[in-house]
Amino acid sequence: MKMKIRNKTAFTDEVTPLEKENAQVSYEAALEGIVLMENDGTLPLKPGKVALYGAGAGMTIKGGTGSGEVNERHAVSILEGMEEAGFTVTTKRWLKGYEEEYKKGEEAYAAEFRRRMMKLDIVNMMGTPYQYPFGQPVTIEDVQDSDTDTCIYVVARQAGESADRKLKNFEYSLSDEEKANLAMCAANYEKMIVVINVGAVFDMSFLDEIAGIGAVVYYAQQGMTGGKAFADLISGKVSPSAKTVDTWPKKYEDIPFAMDYSYLNGDVDEEYYREGIYVGYRYFDSYDVEPRYPFGYGLSYTDFSVENENVLVDGAKVTVTAKVTNTGDTYAGKEVVQLYVSCPQTGMAKEYQKLAAFVKTDELKPGECETVSLAFDIQDAASYREDDAAFVLEKGDYILRLGTSSRDTSAVAAVVLDDDIVTEQCAHICPVVYTVKEMEAPMLTDTHDIQDTDLERIPLKTADIATAGHQYAEPEIYSSPVTDAVLNVLSDEELCDVVTGAGASGGGPKFFEAPGSAGYTTGELIGKGLPNVCLADGPAGLRLQKTSVVMRNGRLKGVEPMLSAMNYIPDFMKKFTLGNPEKRPCVYQFATSFPVGLALAQSWNTALVERVGEAVGKEMERYGVTYWLAPGMNIHRNPLCGRNFEYYSEDPLLTGKIAAAMSRGVQSRRGCYVTIKHFCCNNQEDNRNHTNANVNERALREIYLRGFRIAVQEGHAKAVMTSYNKVNGIYTNNSYDLLTKVLRNEWGFDGLVMTDWFATGKGVGSHSGAIEAGNDLIMPGGKSAAGELKKRLRAGELDTKALKRCAANVIRGITGSRIYQAYRKMEKKNVSDE
After folding, report:
1. Which tens digit of pLDDT belongs to each residue from 669-706?
2. What is the mean pLDDT of residues 743-772?
3. Count of C-beta atoms within a 10 Å radius of residue 736
4. How far is residue 819 from each of residues 45, 499, 516, 614, 620, measured CA to CA in Å?
5. What is the Cα 732 distance to its own chain's centre?
6. What is the spatial distance between Cα 243 and Cα 648, in angstroms, rounded to a whole number?
């Protein structure tokens, strides 16, 4: 049967109702993702004249580079947003000069890119995005010409996949030029606001050196409507409500083993997780290291009181009810209420406290109050005991701390457990190859500094807590009438095509395409009832080709490069790879650029994130995408990780809850699936394809796996992407322990597991090893990968049952998609026509 390739592109570039709707969702997410860090009363500002300087002022960075980019119609800069809100920017001459400086630097960068590209050094160039110039000096003439007493200076840095941020290049700190500019502005403007347009924690030590800075705003990277949201926040239209998702240290060296991270110790092959469970605030709070800004911190234009009303223990469920009141007299606002638990300091060493639950209030007017409930299962406070592979609650006091950041809490009750109990009996996983000698445990007392003898003590009996166990066995091959109808007509060799993607170019037969997709499942088996489906990058939105030309053969060719780095390829290559819109008709797909993952998490608003997920799902429906390669949810182990902008937090609970909300939102649209990534320990980008994460099992389970578990069990994520790196000597895509014992046996995951792109092959994970470990789909796949599997199959070196199990999982996802439904309708119509 001869078939044409289908797509859902539009023949007009008119703004659609869906674009408008999703732009509003992006705006609302940005409003709740911008953190007010310092404010002496400088903010809010009334619209009027303002001096605007800095790299991110007129060329605001909306997101990071690499696969996390989004090709939206237009992104609103801070300059545009302020002018739209009624501000008069009086430093256009300086901004114009900066734009010219930027273009000159970009031309030099492009020349270097092309030179290195000729040497086939593309991957390295992807990891070194063009860094914004620091800007020309702000002179006293600039100040005088600006004719205002108010200044906003926007510091900007770019980062992306394939490389970590470099300390020596001022990617983590201010340059000398910027410090001089800030000092000049702070000394000459009455009102001075500094804005940090960076996708990760940044060195704020300049605040100790430069006097006169009245307010600091952490803008992060807020997608296509961030500039509008920023203007509405600083003008007081809306009060800031975002909170930090990481601990901001006073200096980089305050982070444990800071100079051992990634490239800093000269060894990018072996990374040792010596801090164990003491990541982020767990370290700062346990070792009494004063942060610049604590985890969960953020200011508002109003004040709130948080009062404990009741603590209830029902079986293993603990619920704290609190009354939140806006005690200000001018501004409405939202508050994030956080509940931490301090576990008994007996037996195993433990952190001072860990996040147990959180909730964000509705917007409260001055004097208005809201009662909120924070609930969690006490079993979630269990610690992993490596000796017998068990999660354990130890006898003693579990102190509940209620507040608005990790450093602003009050003890409200102690849940008292009468004896030790194993809450979950597991099997050992990922044995270490190289000994990981962790740091000495902190000296914490079992009283946890509680002096209040009147603290309510609520008994909890071990009889009220169940012990979970697991059956470690090969998962059953998925079976359903629809899946079996396809699976049972395919030969074993054809199954090898099922479990490998269509290749880097996505060439070959296709039933359907969404131009710009990161990959496709195979189209080789369309005649046997299995159409291909599309996989699109994320996590700030769908990365698709926004404009494509229709070639004479009916194929589509993009008009612009999909990745910003490819803007710098030689012109002759652009002519070969890109289409000419002046010669051929065009079709369009305009996706929404949402705030980056970190910025979404700073909202601490799971309902809002779920709405973002649903908005993404609607675009997946609109353009025919089945798997969204997001959310990214690796832990912010170190602020220099080049991809932290894509990920949520240093805390696994917050990470998991936000990812679960995103998953629910996307998957509320039938046949649309998330792909949580990168599973697991993808916490550095330098040498990411070969680095080995050496991590003890307790830290692995409590910190680096927990967020994924929440996304699977609470968000019901339908797909998982394995990471590039090894964990304790084994590539994650070849790890039976991670993919079968943990993911399927322990967590009950029943979806699809895929590799990251080119993560198997020569010098990395084994293609066949991935299938036998439980990695269902090899991406981007291609004939070479499928051919190697077929070769091993013929030689009896590939487990046919494992192959069939993986193929069934791939087919299950495809047959549940909207594309499959369209295929079936078309097939029935063809039969009817015949």
Report:
1. 999 999 999 999 999 999 999 999 999 999 999 999 99
2. 98
3. 16
4. 50, 18, 17, 19, 11
5. 19
6. 12
Q: Dihedral sign, CA of 533, 534, 538, 541?
A: negative
Helices 706-713 and 652-667: angle between axes, nearest 10 degrees:
30
Amino acid of residue 201: V
CB 609 within 8 A of CB 661: yes
Q: How far apart are CA 277 and CA 613, in angstroms?
A: 30
Domain ranges of the chain: 39-238, 295-464, 481-544+595-833, 547-588
Asked if residues 74 and 533 have their Cβ atoms less than 8 Å apart, the reply is no
Catalytic residue among 254, 756, 799, 833: 756
pLDDT band at residue 3 using 50, 70 and 90 as cut-offs: very low
Alpha-carbon span 376 to 771, nearest angstrom: 37
pLDDT given for residue 1 in this prediction: 30
Rounded Cα gap, residues 174 and 186, in angstroms: 15
Cβ neighbors of 251 (< 8 A, separation 6 or more) are: 203, 205
Nearest residue to 586 via CA among 621, 553, 546, 544: 546
Nearest-CA neighbor of 373 among 429, 303, 425, 318? 318
* Confidence at residue 130, expressed as pLDDT on a 0 to 100 scale: 87
Task: Annotate 623-689 with DSSP letters as a single string.
Answer: HTEEEEE--B-----STT-TTGGGS--S-HHHHHHHHHHHHHHHHTSTT-EE-EEEETT----TTTT
Specify the CATH number of the domain 39-238.
3.40.50.1700
- Residue 54: how many CB atoms within 10 A of its CB? 31
Q: Clarify whether 145 is annotated catalytic.
A: no
Q: What is residue 568's DSSP assignment?
A: G
3-state secondary structure 94-153: HHHHHHHHHHHHHHHHHHHHHHHHCCCCHHHHHCCCCCCCCCCCCCHHHHHHHCCCEEEE
Q: Which residues make Cβ contacts (< 8 Å) with residue 443, sequence separation at least 6?
A: none
Which among 323, 336, 402 is positioned nearest to 369, based on CA atoms? 323
Q: Which helix (H) or strand (E) holds 19?
A: helix 17-31
What is the architecture of the domain spanning 481-544+595-833? Alpha-Beta Barrel (3.20)
C-alpha–C-alpha distance, residues 127 and 686, integer Å: 8
- Give the architecture (CATH level 2) of 295-464: Sandwich (2.60)
295-464 and 481-544+595-833 agree in CATH topology: no
Q: 505: which residues sit within 8 A by CB, 6+ positions away?
A: none
Residues 295 and 246: beta-carbon distance below 8 Å: yes
Contact 633, 708 (CB under 8 A): yes
The size of the chain, in residues, is 834
